[in-house]
């Protein structure tokens, strides 16, 4: 009898661990399908907001054309971005041209160095409660991204950009790599650290903080994203789903980024 009890316990332990390893517990999680449609590899990264857990170790490698499925708790809040031009086995400081998190592959909760195109998510992962998500250029831009849910209704979709912000980035906002190529574009707030661009202190209300010539460049290129803190109407999406698709370079690199 004792042997039978031990065997049953061992079986249930095996079954539980098998379900966790195979992803069959996804019914209790939200699925994030991270797709790299760029013509180059990227290193997607995640960082939780205060009080939430780290997901996907905070970062991973994703070759061109590949999809990585990651899981988040039903109620998770945080940010997702793509790092580019990374060389982790070199003496580079930082290791990535954009979005670096202190030279680590697995950011493990660290926030990436701006400017980056930032996906912000607050999940409520069942069909009866909506999740909130947006794409922000408040600190700047590196590559385009789209966000949608599995059923792809239009009102739940954040599309990519009409053109690359890097192509129209003013010189004073440009971030260059060692080859002199523009790999990211700072926001005016990040570049100049002035209240009028950062919507703070005397400019800390929607009435006082208006679009600048710089934020208008971002908005013209990427109309579905936040171009500055008080962007109106707020490009915040509110939809319910247990599965999301986050696509970097939704139409490749060098094309118009209008399709998913």
Query: What is the CATH topology?
Result: Thaumatin
Label the CATH architecture: Sandwich
Distance between the termini: 59 Å
CATH superfamily: Thaumatin
The number of helical runs is 5
Content-based structural category: alpha+beta
Q: What integer is the average pLDDT?
A: 86
Write a structural description.
There is one protein chain. This protein is an alpha+beta fold. It has a single domain (28-248), classed as Thaumatin, CATH 2.60.110. The protein has five helices and twelve strands. The chain has helices at 2-22, 165-168, 188-192, 195-198, 213-221, and strands at 29-36, 43-48, 67-73, 77-83, 118-122, 131-136, 140-141, 145-149, 174-176, 182-186, 237-239, 243-248. The strands form three sheets. It has a five-stranded antiparallel beta sheet with strand order 2-4-5-6-11, with no helix packed on it. β9 (174-176) and β10 form a beta hairpin. The radius of gyration is 20 Å and the shape is globular. The model is unreliable at 1-26 and 253-260 (pLDDT under 50).
Which properties best describe this structure?
260 residues, alpha+beta, Thaumatin, 4-stranded mixed beta sheet, 5 helices, globular, disordered N terminus
């Amino acid at each position: 009898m004792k042997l039978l009890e031990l065997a049953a316990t061992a079986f249930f332990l095996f079954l539980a661990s098998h379900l966790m390893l195979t992803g069959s517990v996804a019914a209790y999680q939200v699925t994030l399908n991270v797709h790299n449609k760029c013509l180059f590899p990227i290193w997607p990264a995640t960082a939780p907001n205060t009080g939430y857990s780290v997901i996907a170790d905070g970062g991973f490698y994703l070759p061109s054309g590949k999809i990585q499925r990651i899981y988040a708790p039903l109620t998770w809040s945080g940010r997702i971005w793509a790092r580019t031009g990374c060389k982790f086995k070199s003496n580079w400081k930082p290791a990535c041209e954009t979005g670096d998190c202190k030279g680590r592959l697995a950011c493990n909760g660290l926030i990436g160095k701006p400017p980056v195109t930032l996906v912000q998510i607050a999940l409520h992962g069942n069909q009866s409660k909506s999740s909130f998500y947006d794409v922000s250029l408040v600190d700047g831009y590196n590559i385009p991204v789209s966000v949608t849910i599995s059923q792809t209704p239009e009102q739940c979709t954040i599309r990519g950009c009409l053109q690359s912000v890097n192509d129209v980035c003013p010189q004073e906002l440009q971030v260059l790599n060692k080859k002199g190529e523009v790999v990211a574009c700072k926001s005016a707030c990040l570049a100049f650290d002035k209240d009028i661009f950062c919507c703070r202190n005397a400019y800390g209300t929607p009435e006082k903080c208006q679009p600048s010539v710089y934020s208008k460049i971002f908005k013209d290129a990427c109309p579905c994203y936040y171009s500055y803190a008080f962007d109106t109407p707020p490009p915040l999406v509110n939809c319910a789903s247990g599965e999301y698709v986050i696509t970097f370079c939704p139409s490749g690199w060098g094309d118009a980024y209008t399709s998913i």
